Amino acid sequence: MKVSPEDPDDVLVSQAGKGNARAFEYLVKKYQHRVLALIGRYIRDSHEAQDVAQDAFVRAFKALPNFRGDAQFYTWLYRIAVNTAKNHLVSRGRRAPTTDIDIADAEQFDSADALRSHDSPEANDRRDRLELAVRKAIAELPEDLRVALTLRELEGKSYDEISAIMACPVGTVRSRIFRARDTVSAKIEPYMEGTFREGQGQ
Predict the structure, then answer these.
(1) Cα–Cα distance for residue pair 194/191, rounded to 1 Å
(2) Domains (range + CATH), the chain
(3) What confidence tens digit (pLDDT) does each residue in 55-108 have?
(4) Rounded to 5 degrees, what angle do the CA atoms 157, 158, 159 make?
(5) Measured between alpha carbons, how far is 81 from 39 in angstroms, rounded to an integer?
(6) Which residues form the signal peptide (predicted)?
């Protein structure tokens, strides 16, 4: 069956589970930045995090025949990525955290972390352009999304605190932050792709 990047996850997952490498390639492209950002919360070195992210996708591909669709694909992938990161830390004699990162916080846009191990002039230029793109993307968000994201990402407020500040339910706060992150992620994707590909080439 021919697949395309526009196909829904269930179609891509079904085809990838049957060995369709192109279908899985589309899933990787769709979720690679979320997975890398998530693993970056556990492993601060960007090169190491990229290696672990690739390992997580390999594990996911091998486990696809066992995916039954009881949860969203990214929720399932999130669990694999977290376990892969923890196992990596333990295998190197480092203590893994006892609590997992909230899946709602898994997508973050810390360009300094993403490029932390790069210190060449070219890398610095990429970092500057990425940071500018992040600031521009956040500035262009609707006010309710921008405020919610700023309170969460820059000021470190809890969802309950943001709920009180913005006078709206916690569920609304989570929705706004998710939409804000998704919008920013889409806008900075062209700046992130080069970074991920460099890690794959090592």
Answers:
(1) 7
(2) 9-101 (1.10.1740.10), 108-200 (1.10.10.10)
(3) 999 999 988 888 877 778 888 998 899 889 988 888 878 766 555 555 555 444
(4) 120
(5) 7
(6) none
